[in-house]
Write a structure and sequence with these properties.
Layout (H helix, E strand, L loop, with lengths): L1 H30 L5 H19 L9 H24 L5 H8 L1 H14 L5 H18 L16 H23 L5 H22 L9 H26 L4 H8 L2 H13 L4 H20 L4 H6 L7
């Protein structure tokens, strides 16, 4: 019974941080009215780095030069993913951004085939097909012509977010090779530091830099920097020791559902029947991808990056 209670506690903790991740899509969308994407990201990841440094003051520095270099490489994909995602949120809705970002899990077997020559299984192929149909329906406006290769409703924000999903997928594929060899804490910390520095440099060089600490911007920074990055990472580490990685990944598929719920409650965003069907198909694709055979290192480490 105590073990069962521990599993339930772990699942509820993961569901809670999934809800936080879902909420951040709406929070960031609101905050971007007072900040440019790169200034927001620089402060958000700097705050997360400070929190992790305070939590693990010695452990974050226990890494070899090679480990730090590999963490920096993974940090490049993380930076690109968040930069595309946050910039895309300026032009698309929070709910659409969440569903499109979820495609990163589905893109992993495709990129693994291209990079590592690992042939995807039947479940992965089916997931890609479902995701493609779902993406079409999600981004197609009511006036899109059937058979059109480019849905008329796909805007620049959707395209940027699709690029974000690819970057997060590359992050997963790269982390799969690196994570089994190094401690997760310094790997995560230096990725966050690289992202903070890169976004800070881009923001400093941009004439459009802006960061007004409005109530929404300030709350979004605290939620994303402290709760959605630093605390969520700590909770995930604790929970991963008490439940399987596949179970964790299935729970995380609720993220776009929470995002759609919060965007409806706060911003009154409505996907419509076609959008809901498309989002549902993308959600099914993510579930199918997780039900299929999992490749060892990713499952062992429980890496599910790319959250808001």
């Amino acid at each position: 019974m105590p073990r069962q209670r521990t599993h339930i506690a772990a699942d509820l903790s993961l569901l809670a941080i999934t809800a936080v991740w879902g909420f951040t899509f709406t929070a960031v969308k609101q905050a971007l009215g007072a900040a440019d994407p790169f200034s927001f990201l620089a402060v958000r990841f700097a705050l997360a780095a400070v929190v992790l440094l305070a939590a693990f003051p010695r452990r974050v520095f226990r890494v070899t030069a090679r480990g730090a270099a590999l963490a920096a490489l993974i940090g490049v994909w993380l930076t690109l993913g968040y930069a595309l995602q946050t910039t895309g949120l300026v032009y698309t809705t929070a709910s659409k951004s969440a569903f499109i970002t979820g495609l990163s899990v589905v893109l992993v077997p495709v990129l693994s085939l291209a990079i590592s020559r690992v042939r995807p299984g039947l479940a992965s192929v089916g997931a890609v097909a479902l995701a493609a149909i779902g993406l079409y329906l999600l981004t197609a406006s009511s006036g899109a012509r059937v058979g059109s290769l480019r849905p008329s409703g796909m805007n620049v924000g959707d395209l940027l977010t699709l690029g974000c999903a690819a970057a997060f997928a590359l992050h997963i594929v790269t982390a799969e090779r690196v994570a089994p060899r190094y401690d997760a804490v310094p790997l995560a910390f230096w990725q966050i530091v690289i992202t903070a520095i890169a976004c800070g440099l881009i923001a400093a060089a941009s004439p459009a830099r802006r960061l007004d600490l409005t109530p929404w911007a300030l709350s979004a920074l605290i939620i994303t920097g402290v709760l959605a990055t630093a605390v969520a990472f700590l909770v995930q580490m604790w929970a991963q020791r008490r439940t399987s990685a596949t179970h964790v990944a299935v729970i995380f598929t609720a993220e776009p559902v929470f995002a759609a719920l919060f965007s409806w409650l706060i911003q009154h965003e409505v996907l419509g029947a076609r959008g809901l069907l498309g989002g549902g198909l993308i959600l099914c694709a993510v579930l199918v991808a997780q039900i299929g055979p999992q490749r060892g290192p990713v499952e062992a480490e429980g890496l599910v990056p790319g959250r808001q």
